[in-house]
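Readers of this paper often ask what the protein records in our data store actually look like. Such a record has a labelled line for the sequence and another for the backbone structure tokens. Nothing more is needed to write down the fold, since each code stands for a local backbone conformation. The remainder of this section carries one protein's record, kept here as part of the documentation.
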Amino acid sequence: MAKKKYNVGLVLSGGGARGFAHLGVLQALNEAGIFPDIISGTSAGALAGVLYCDGNSPKEIFKIMKTNSRFDYMRPTLPRDGLLQISGVTKLLETNLRAKKFEDLKIPLFVSATDLNHGKAVYFSKGDLITTIIASSSIPVLFKPVIINKICYVDGGVLDNLPIKPIENKCHRIIGSFVNPVGYEASISGLIKIAVRTFMLDQTKEADGKAGRFDLFIAPDELKNYGILETEKADDLFKLGYTVTCEKLNKADLSLFRIAGSGK
């Protein structure tokens, strides 16, 4: 049997503003002495993941991301390939990322994006960081696709919103953080709301289909009460991710995640 390179791997799903919950998850894990040795993420999970892998603590990332309002992250544009611009995320990364390439990160990172030309999920772990993170975060219809090497990419959540695949055989233990549950929506009108709702519904199957492949799976059901564009609820989302993770850890055998060599 091939020796696994990493002790703990962490998979972070997409989920828009709900990605603030990932930071609460990371905070609880770190406080328990659990530090991921490798991360795989998509969309909001890729954004949280890249800032963590760049050497920032969960609370530092929270501070960086909370300074931006919903309208800083996205702005209306003339609808051709997308209804909104994602330039705010680009600016956030350009301002705060020390690493420019995957190879420069302190912790290895995989980012999933969807190749529209070939109709498949692609997992990036080399090359330019910012362009790849934006591609992974470009929800179809809301944001225009990103072109990388003449290939058209959109949000990784279209085909793999919980990207365990690239690290599954590399880690002794894998933790999953899923922040995209779907609940009842009373009013659905307008292009943006319809696009968001359709996209979210398509991703719910990820949690049910993959939960059993994780050694620890965190999926706060209460997140269904928050919209994926509600960045103003950042504090509540962080607290929810933190609280649910602490509850999970209280019932888990933490020694399984503390093999020699893990930690910072």
Residues 69-84, 260-264 have pLDDT under 50 and may be disordered. The two ends are 28 Å apart (CA to CA). The longest strand covers residues 6-12. The chain is about 35% helix and 15% strand.
